[in-house]
Specification:
Blueprint (H helix, E strand, L loop, with lengths): L7 E4 L8 H11 L3 E6 L2 H14 L3 E4 L7 H12 L5 E3 L15 E2 L4 E2 L1
Length: about 110
């Protein structure tokens, strides 16, 4: 394989040990990267923190983007602790196929109201 030794990785969106984000974070650590993990809110922290600690994350920080100052606060913390980020794994989410809204009907030629 390859080495990420000396690299700094930010993993966002870990929901559980079966999530894509967890798998990415685990691979980063296995290849030698230092790891920072974010959680969405206090409710999510209870689930994410044990996983982040299991992975050996150096930083475990909140990241609720709509909340004022959390996005800037995250990067301020990363800058103070590491000075840089080499890898940023954004939130991964599996999207389920959804039916189109009821006001739209699918036609083989176009979408029409």
């Amino acid at each position: 394989m390859f080495s990420l030794s000396g690299k700094k990785a930010l993993a966002a969106g870990i929901a559980n040990d079966q999530s894509i984000a967890y798998g990415c974070a685990k691979a980063f650590r296995e290849q030698g990267a230092a790891l920072a993990v974010t959680y969405l809110n206090e409710k999510a922290e209870k689930h994410v923190r044990p996983l982040a600690e299991e992975l050996g994350a150096e930083l475990i920080l909140p990241l609720g983007v709509p909340k004022d100052g959390e996005f800037a606060g995250l990067f301020d913390s990363l800058r103070q602790h590491w000075g840089r980020i080499d890898i940023c794994q954004p939130r991964s989410r599996q999207h389920h196929r959804r039916r189109p809204p009821h006001r739209w009907r699918l036609s083989h030629r176009r979408l029409r109201p």
